[in-house]
Amino acid sequence: QVQLVESGGGLVQAGGSLRLSCAGSGRTFSRYVMGWFRQAPGKEREFVAAINWSTATTYYADSVKGRFTISRDTVKNGWYLQMDSLNPSDTAVYYCAVRLRFSINPYYTSIGEYDSWGQGTQVTVSS
Q1: Distances from the Cα of 110 to the Cαs of 23, 76, 79, 98, 124, in angstroms?
Q2: What phi and psi, each to the nearest 5 degrees, are found at residue 17?
Q3: pLDDT tens by residue, 43-77
């Protein structure tokens, strides 16, 4: 059974940075896609970024492109979201997810395309 645990959330001022981590266990993650989603109060969960585990190819939502960077560590079985130039609209609960199906690219942006989820970590950006 796959388990995902996020960490690294917190409170930061606008313009600041945070790095989220997701630790995966229960399976070797080759040929899968890892993603980050977020859900702000009163809004639907939305795609943020994804990375193909094997190729390290990445894909971003337009709202975070150029500010956020997704990466993975094949030794530690984890993936990360470096968030720079944060603004109050980035405030949300951030979730990591994994698509447990063979994939050759990272272009998966829908919730239903991912199979396992972490519990979420709160990110709050103050103005």
Answers
A1: 21, 26, 19, 12, 24
A2: -130, 155
A3: 999 999 999 999 999 999 999 999 999 999 988 88
